[in-house]
Amino acid sequence: TLGVNVLPVTRRYGELAASLHVLAEGPVEQRVLSTTSTLRSAMHSLLSARLGSVLRTQRKKQAIFMVNNADMVLSILRERGVRSGDDTRMFEEMLDTHKSVFVEEVLSVTYGRLIRFVKATEQPLAQGGVEAVRKMPE
């Protein structure tokens, strides 16, 4: 199994997406954009399926896997001069989301109770202020 490593297809996707972005600057823009949208959707489905099939119960490894793959695509896009667009946006969002999950998983080992407390009090605090939190059962 590949575990948390970057899938070989991820690098190929990044290179193809970067090339299609260059083509999209020309007169065939609309056809290229619809193709990139389809490919982006398929790549997201592939990565999600990989999470479900191999790493289904290991949240930390899932986060590492997604961070590695999203970072690979973003690195290739940036290397080729693609700084914006739907591909960049989707993989940046994926990277940010899964970095947060990873950090939470690492910190939960030592600070699990504190994290649960903060999550439990955030909404009541925002809705009813300090008094709502004081009335919460311990």
Secondary structure: helix percent: over 70%
What about the largest sheet? none
- From the N-terminal CA to the C-terminal CA, the straight-line distance is 44 Å
Based on CA atoms alone, the radius of gyration comes out at 20 Å
User: What sort of overall outline do the alpha carbons produce when their principal axes are compared?
Assistant: elongated
Low-pLDDT sequence parts: none
- Which class do the helix and strand fractions yield? mainly alpha
Number of beta-strand segments: 0
What is the mean pLDDT? 83
Task: Give me the strand/helix succession.
Answer: HHHH
In percent terms, what proportion of residues is strand? under 5%
* Annotation field: number of helices: 4
Describe the structure.
Helices cover 80% and strands 0% of the residues. It has four helices and no strands. The N and C termini lie far apart (44 Å). The protein is an all-alpha fold and 138 residues long.
